[in-house]
Design goal:
Blueprint lengths: L5 E5 L5 E6 L5 E6 L2 H17 L10 H13 L5 H14 L1 H4 L9 H13 L4 H20 L26 H11 L5 H8 L5 H5 L6 E2 L4 E4 L2 E4 L9 E4 L7 E4 L2 H21 L21 H15 L7 H13 L4 H8 L4 H8 L4 H15 L3
Helix pairs in contact: 2-3, 2-6, 3-6, 7-11, 8-10, 13-14
Length: about 375
């Protein structure tokens, strides 16, 4: 091993630089705000080189470092779905554009141009921000490992996210929907969502162990999703919830009645299916043979019904919006609603659903009128 030499000097901008040689005799530099910081960094680097664990490599490309970053610093430390998204975003939206660029040569302009190209190609603002979050974290770790001097993605401008317009049903429209949907194969599934506000992945993945018939509660602790990349690409699997926040929902009498009917219907389907019955996860809502309900299938059935209503713009996710909006109109406590929806904070719930609509404004005016007229 080449004997490691190092020296420390103060730079013209006031920061400090420490120089050292790796096992191949190549010189590298470390930087810090104070001499003490640089001295500690050099000592740490000396130990890494002595143990053979140093990964300093100035010729690493963005692609090489990206896969190394995910393998060494993310695998096993973030949710499976998060790592899956990292791998997919990196492979599709980073490698083709700047994958062959050396880390040390990467510039802010290069990264900015990637975001501009992705936007021109039709990638949504939210997806571009996800790519940026992954790339920023990757470069930040490279900077902390002294592979680069600064994180060049820090000052990039990102596209503004435009919120999807919500199309919640009114109470009257919800009644119309129920009437049109009552003969649909997935009526019970859709009806249940109007009374719980579950996300599609949570609704599809519900299993009977989630239900406490005595306490009238529903435990929501996982979601059923399709894996986008990696060794399990294309498979439907259970993963932790969106924010890893398990919750328990107290069910209404109607919601409990839906579950009881779903159990009765499933027992009949199991008898008819015989040996072809296959419900390996013990799901609540299934197809006639016990298999899970596909997202696309539920979507098609739902869209056919809203089209008949004259509301083709309504998405299945608007069932969740309907639940939240009608809950607020019914004076459900925002904190309770936030917990039921599985939001991280009450502030987020109010930001998304706290907008006043005509019914709520009229209700507020009537209440104020009734109060003032007493005097």
């Amino acid at each position: 091993m080449t004997e490691m030499k190092n020296n420390i000097r103060q730079r013209s901008n006031g920061t400090w630089e420490g120089r050292y040689y790796d096992v191949d005799g190549k010189q590298h530099s470390l930087y810090g705000r104070t001499k003490a910081i640089v001295k500690d960094k050099l000592a740490e680097k000396r130990a890494e080189i002595a143990q053979g664990t140093s990964i300093t490599e100035t010729d690493l490309t963005v692609e090489q470092w990206g896969w190394e970053w995910m393998k060494t610093f993310k695998a096993g430390k973030v949710k499976h779905s998060t790592l899956d998204n990292y791998e997919s975003d990196f492979r599709l939206h980073v490698v083709p554009y700047i994958g062959n660029v050396k880390l040390k040569d990467l510039t802010t302009l290069m990264v900015q141009r990637v975001y501009i190209l992705l936007e021109k190609e039709g990638l949504s603002p939210k997806s571009i921000r996800n790519v940026h979050g992954m790339l920023h974290g990757m470069l930040d770790k490279a900077m902390k490992m002294d592979l680069i001097r600064k994180n060049v993605s820090k000052n990039c401008e990102l596209p503004h996210i435009q919120q999807h317009e919500m199309h919640p049903f009114t109470k009257e429209e919800m009644g119309m929907f129920m009437n049109l949907a009552k003969d649909d194969e997935y009526y019970l599934m859709m009806r249940f969502d109007f009374f719980t506000g579950l996300r599609e992945s949570e609704l599809i993945g519900l299993t009977w162990d989630c239900v406490d018939f005595e306490k009238h509660t529903l435990r929501v602790y996982r979601q059923f999703v399709r894996i986008a990349s990696g060794p399990d690409k294309g498979k439907m699997m259970y993963t932790p919830l969106k924010n890893s926040k398990e919750r328990t929902i107290t069910l209404t009498t109607t919601a409990m009645a839906v579950l009881q009917e779903a159990k009765r219907k499933q027992n009949e389907q199991r008898l008819r299916a015989g040996s072809s019955w296959h419900n390996e996860y013990n799901m609540i809502f299934t197809r006639a043979n016990g298999m899970f309900v596909r997202f696309k299938t539920l979507y098609v059935h739902f869209k056919d019904i809203v089209k008949d209503m004259g509301r083709p713009e309504v998405r299945f996710h608007d069932v969740r919006h309907t639940y939240a909006t009608l809950s607020l109109q019914s004076h459900v406590d925002p904190k309770t609603l936030s917990e039921t929806l599985g939001h991280a904070t009450v502030a987020f719930t109010l930001d998304v659903y706290g907008h006043s609509n005509s019914d709520m404004r009229q209700q507020a005016a009537d209440q104020l009128e009734a109060l003032i007229c007493q005097y």
